[in-house]
Prior knowledge:
Elements: E1 2-3, E2 6-7, H1 10-19, E3 24-28, E4 31-39, E5 46-50
Antiparallel strand pairs: 1-2, 3-4, 4-5
Amino acid sequence: xxxxxxxxxxxxxxxxxxxxxxxxxxxxxxxxxxxxxxxxxxxxxxxxxxxxxxxxxxxxxxxxxx
Length: 66
């Protein structure tokens, strides 16, 4: 993932969010929406998605690219 001018592995961002070290968000339809970590049921792998039921996961596509 690109954050600002730096590239990070999604796993690193997952670790930061899980530890409370950093907070990430996206702007989608003129609202700030938190990026959160969830665990996939059968594989138990963690992944990034967005908070709130009003926005589709496609909102993650609006992550800034510089």
